[in-house]
Specification:
Malonyl_CoA_deC; single chain; Malonyl_CoA_deC_C_sf; 4 strands; Malonyl_CoA_deC_C; two-stranded antiparallel ribbon; globular; two-stranded antiparallel sheet; 95 residues; malonyl-CoA decarboxylase activity; DCMC protein
């Protein structure tokens, strides 16, 4: 889960999220909200994402400002759960 959080939050291509689905939602003003262990246990889900599923949350009053923040300064808005996983990854990673 820590690696997944880092991949979605920290891995970038030209400053934007490397994952195309994450990039889509973040450009539209969402918050990287929750990572669900074994949220997709279908054969496709297991093969594509090791069963991980991600929730993006849209706070309607914040979508325009979140989108502008992401597009202008490439900053990802994320929940405390995701940020805690990112922090744990950074503390334990040798990457």
């Amino acid at each position: 889960m820590r690696l997944c959080a880092w991949y979605l939050y920290g891995e970038k291509h030209r400053g934007y999220a490397l994952n195309p689905v994450a990039n889509f939602h973040l450009q539209n003003g969402s918050v990287l909200w929750r990572i669900n262990w074994m949220g997709d246990t279908s054969p496709r889900g297991l093969g594509a994402s090791c069963g991980m599923m991600v929730n993006y949350r849209y706070f309607l009053e914040e979508t325009a400002s979140n989108s502008a923040l992401y597009l202008a300064s490439k900053q990802v808005r994320a929940s405390e759960q995701v940020l805690a996983l990112v922090s744990q990854f950074q503390q334990n990673s040798k990457l």
